[in-house]
Amino acid sequence: xxxxxxxxxxxxxxxxxxxxxxxxxxxxxxxxxxxxxxxxxxxxxxxxxxxxxxxxxxxxxxxxxxxxxxxxxxxxxxxxxxxxxxxxxxxxxxxxxxxxxxxxxxxxxxxxxxxxxxxxxxx
Length: 123
Description:
four-stranded mixed beta sheet
């Protein structure tokens, strides 16, 4: 089953750059109002609307959002944390736990959208 996630963006170009760089997602198509990023069986659609451009606090994590995308990775936490930080996001330290045989921690992107990392034990 192919899966995907749609996220509203204050800046499609900024979020597209973040997710492309951090998770090596390829930009399949897009313009100044949307971007379709993909890798394998996952697609991330970023949409910039008049409403989404009005978000005032882009640097604070939006913890009240009842859903968060999850990314399964093979990169060590120390390395992915640095990559996320360099692109304007942050990993929530030191809170990480084990679940389903993986190390799990939450992070946020450059616009405050919270996502979860699930890291292979071998990473």
